[in-house]
Amino acid sequence: MSARTTATKQKLFDAALKLVGERGAASVTVDEIAAEAGVAKGTIYYNFASKDALVEALLHHGVEILAGRLRSAESAESSEDSLEALVDQMLGFWAEYPAFGQLLVSELWRTPGQWHGTLSLLRDDIVSIVRGQMKRLADAGRLPEGVEVGTASAALFGTLLVIALDWQVFQPERSRAEVRESVMLLVRGLGQARRPGPADG
Q1: Rounded CA gap, 158 and 106, in Å?
Q2: HSE (CB half, 13 Å, CA atoms) of 194?
Q3: Which residue numbers delimit the HTH tetR-type domain (predicted)?
Q4: Is residue 5 part of a domain?
Q5: Could you report how far apart the first and last alpha carbons of the chain are, in Å?
Q6: Would you say the pTM of this structure is higher than 0.70?
Q7: 83 assigned to some structural domain
Q8: Structural domain that includes position 159
Q9: CA–CA separation, 17 vs 24, rounded Å?
Q10: Distance between CA 172 and CA 4 in Å, rounded?
Q11: How many contiguous H segments (helices) and E segments (strands) does the chain have?
Q12: With the C-alpha atoms ordered 35, 36, 38, 44, is the resulting torsion angle positive or negative?
């Protein structure tokens, strides 16, 4: 793929991401994507068979970027550092691509939805990375008794998505470090949850 073709596809991705994130995939037209990208309508059909193919490629593209960043957190030595790096990378991604977060929220839990199947598979890719981090915490005895790794993984993913969107929409004055530390305080609190003793009965 030539540099020019790559640059053109990136412009189309950026335009589609902005519009789809704001209004949902179904309500955005090819003409609008072309106008936002500053290219001719035919350019979209030259690079993608249809608007649906463009959105499909966009979803995969965004998740690949996010997955790559989350995997970079796996190199940390301790489970605590690794989890903090994962939280930081995810918050950083949502800060850089807020429209993608809006797209996930608007399309992932919409039933029925045209992109539900694709997004479910992509969600599984991300959650599997988070699951690896939760497994490290579980192996270190950091998860509360009775909490399953799978449940904790889905909960952390959903929590980070909602917190990131809340941050971007309602609390943009907060720094990424502040939001990250708030999440880590919550996670540490769960990890140190006291097991009920005889006096609690």
Answers
A1: 13
A2: 5
A3: 6-66
A4: no
A5: 66
A6: yes
A7: yes
A8: 51-190
A9: 10
A10: 35
A11: 9, 0
A12: negative
Amino acid of residue 92: G
Residue 175 included in any domain: yes
Amino acid at 157: F
Cα separation, 39 vs 103, in Å, equals 23
Rounded-to-integer distance, Cα 140 and Cα 83, Å? 12
Distance CA 134, CA 156 (A): 9
CA distances (Å), origin 174, targets 67, 70, 159, 169: 25, 22, 17, 11
The residue with tokens 């720094």 is: 175
Cα dist. 155→7, 15, 93, 149 in Å? 36, 31, 18, 10
CATH of the domain at 124: 1.10.357.10
The series of mean pLDDT values per 10 residues for the chain, 201 residues long, is 78 87 82 94 91 86 89 88 93 87 74 72 89 90 86 90 89 95 82 48 47
Q: Is residue 79 part of a domain?
A: yes
| Number of domains into which the chain is organized | 1
